[in-house]
Request: fold
Amino acid sequence: MNALPCEHRYAHRCGPTPLVSVSLEGGPAIWCKLEFMNPSGSTKDRIARYILEKAWRQGKLCAGDTVVEASSGSTSIALALACAQMGLRFVAVMPEGVSSERVMIIRAYGGQVRLTPRDQGIRGSLAETERYAQECNAFLPRQFANLDNAEAHRVGTAREIVDQLPGGLVHAVVSGVGTGGTLVGLYQGLSEAGCPVVPVLARPVNIRQQPEVECCSFSARIPGVVDSLSRIFAEAELPDLQTIEVNDEVALGTARKLMRRGFPIGPSSGLNFAAAVAMAQKLERSGQACPTVVTVFPDRMERYFTTELFHDPS
Ligand code: PMP
Reply:
């Protein structure tokens, strides 16, 4: 078993992040896990460290090796920070057009950024990642397929929630899905702890895209949340999975309201919170008095300065 490099052993760790009860405008109280308080500013610190440390201990990674990942944001930033601390080389592959703050942060941590054509989206980045990793014999964390992603949340985030929550009982856990690691890991960890928990997928929709269609279309306006790409999510057992659709304008508006309440969060926190409120109301209507609904605030506002989150129309 390989020991971790000395400076890394003493580097600041992920979690426990605070779990706080938040209610907006007289609505139901939601338990929110403040994941933006992790070292690089997002919940992805957990998976970056979990995956890299495990590979290091297993001798699959050592100082000077290259790590390559397709990610348009938080995971790349978290991997760039962890690689800087562990003496690893990091290359992020992402579609053109991602906010410049992200590229600047990754480069500041010593990472490299390779951009793929915008019209190919994250799929183009995934293909380029495979090609480039073969070329330079790199380690691939593969956040969309690596079950250690969900595992990091099962053994980390979920256990923290059970310890932090008065009574330790959760009725529903709500999250937008990118890789699915957060929702799958939280559901598994909370179920194992004995919670009668329902997993809830928060899905952003844009009602203007297809006004005549009853079921709304997925909106790409909430960074980090994607539509049906993840193997982790597709292959997970999530009995009774519920989906709550949130108008993307409502998600962004909720994020702005949360910022005015003193939470330095990004758009997906607004999506998650709005869906969690809808789920709590649904549980109340079905006779569950004061349901305990948990969600996450995945990342920080600073990486969205050049996006519409900061173009408040009101
Ligand atoms: N990144 C951000 C910024 C998010 O908001 C979300 C959704 N909660 C995700 C990623 C998705 O998390 P996961 O990849 O664990 O599904």
Observations:
- The pocket of 4'-deoxy-4'-aminopyridoxal-5'-phosphate is lined by residues 74, 175-182, 223-225, 266, 268, 272, 298-299 (CB under 6 Å).
- Residues 267-285 form the longest helix (19 residues).
- The chain has a mean pLDDT of 92.
